[in-house]
Write a structure and sequence with these properties.
- This protein has helices spanning 7-19, 24-38, 53-67, 83-94, 126-137, 174-182, 210-214, 223-229, 237-251, and strands spanning 2-5, 45-49, 72-76, 99-100, 110-114, 141-145, 163-169, 172-173, 185-192, 202-204, 254-258.
- It is of the alpha/beta class and 267 residues long.
- The chain is globular, with a radius of gyration of 18 Å.
């Protein structure tokens, strides 16, 4: 059984894993490793990094790409780093991975979107909105890390990066599934990095359970229209989401990966 959760539940689950003894740097390493393993890498990769842990996942990915002999460049959009992000960024500098502040995707084959995380809300700042527009206009394949930058983590709304692949980390966030329904994500993966779920969730399973009926969230105003488009016309919003998810799993557009047994950092 897979789980769909809210942003607040993901935040609580992440904090609980750290409090119970899993180092936050190890969780970040598992996230970067999951992204690396979920996708096929060829050509030149540009990792677009923001200022938070989302960027840190990208720095781990850069180290793994360097180790695999895949050329990559880090496009740095901020001088700020999270504590764990700074740790892996220093490793990238030590490995002499190229870093630039110049936006140029003309020779990029894959863009990795690590700009904004699931905690983003509100209105995009003009420079970030312009950068997202440039990403969407590029001919390169786009992979978003954890969430498409600009997308609301619970509702799937907002002007955002349009991805070929989005790799969610930990558990599938509700907004990602709604963003997927809207067409802003072509293929949606979730990578389980061994974080226990600490809160309510919507199960994707063969049975409609009590949790499915009681899952608490606000659907966007166009939710019925979105579901009707896919001919999923009966049930509660949670039940309709589950039906949609199961259908996309069968088609291969929604996939789940599991990182297990990773107890040390190897980059």
């Amino acid at each position: 059984m897979e789980k769909i959760i809210s942003v607040s539940v993901m935040r609580s689950s992440d904090a609980a894993a750290i409090q119970n003894g899993t180092p936050s740097k190890l969780l970040m390493y598992r996230a970067g490793l999951g992204i690396f393993q979920c996708c096929r890498w060829n050509g030149h990769v540009t990792i677009v990094a923001g200022s938070g842990n989302n960027a840190g996942d990208g720095y781990v990915l850069a180290l793994l790409l360097r180790k695999a002999g895949v050329p990559c460049t880090i496009l740095l959009t901020s001088e700020k780093f999270s504590a764990d992000g700074a740790y892996y960024f220093e490793k990238c500098l030590a490995q002499q991975i190229p870093v630039t502040k110049v936006v140029d995707f003309s020779s990029t084959d894959i863009i990795v979107d690590c700009l904004l995380g699931t905690g983003f809300q509100g209105k995009l700042r003009p420079p970030i909105q312009q950068l997202i527009e440039q990403i969407n206009a590029a001919s390169a394949k786009v992979i978003s890390v954890d969430i498409n930058s600009g997308m609301h983590g619970d509702t799937g709304e907002g002007f955002c990066v349009q991805s070929d692949i989005t790799v969610s980390i930990g558990y599938l966030k509700l907004g990602l599934l709604l963003g997927f329904v809207r067409g802003n994500i072509k293929t949606l993966y979730n990578c389980d990095i061994e974080i226990p779920c600490k809160g309510p969730y919507l199960p994707i399973s063969n049975e409609i359970s009590a949790n499915t009926l009681s899952f608490d969230f606000d659907v966007p105003i166009d939710f019925d229209k979105l579901m009707n488009h896919f001919r999923i016309q009966s049930g509660t919003p949670a039940q309709r989401l589950q039906q949609f998810a199961k259908y996309e799993i069968q088609k291969g557009n929604l996939q789940f990966f599991h990182i297990q047994g990773i107890t040390k950092i190897e980059v």
